[in-house]
Amino acid sequence: MANKIFTGKTDMGLKRQNNEDVFLVNPELDFCLTADGMGGAAAGEVASEIFAKATLEIFSANRNRSEKDTLYQVQKAYSIANKTILEHVFAHPDHRGMGCTAELLAFFEDSFILGHIGDSRTYRLRNGVLEQLTDDHTLVQRQFQEGLISEDEIRQHPMRHVIFRAVGIKEEMTIDLLTGKTHPADLFLLCSDGLTDMVEDDQIQDILCADTDINRKTDSLIESAKVAGGLDNITVVLVAIP
Fold first, then answer.
1. Is pTM, for the whole model, over 0.85?
2. Edge-to-edge strand order for the sheet containing 129-132?
């Protein structure tokens, strides 16, 4: 079987003075991630880097790829990153409030395990149809699920960026875990909210369905977010299943 194709790119956007997003693709270890830092003053970037470093260390230490092993590695990566960020904040009180949202997608055999926390997202394009696999851990998403606001109100809501779950915010952390089978020609997208705040899902679908190579799709997604205003850092990771 041909190997999966991984690609990723991050861009500061048009309004921010630094980039607190981090991505990592590792075809050899068969995983990828995005992390979107919170906290400002470069502390958010530190949190994102801690998550990426912790994940790489965990996956490098155990290359067994059974479902049980992969699930353990995903959970351990979040746990170690959470603990490390909290320890960092204790040692650097001026970084209090830092943390990150994080998507971690790991493959084994013909399956995947996805870890998710925050308002970064993971999508899957299958047979030309884009599906959001994750739920945003935001106040407005919770209000929508409770029927208090409409879907149309979410994008313009003044509280849309209030997150109630992230890595490094408190000792007790709950992540969403999703597992599933991969199908030939599946295309996975991991992204920060700098993309999805700017670009509607139907436009993302159109770009991913275009008859261009995977690197061009990545560039097109980032460029679309910048054309729409580029208000935040923009990070895109794509994985094509052969």
1. yes
2. 5-11, 234-240, 187-191, 121-126, 129-132
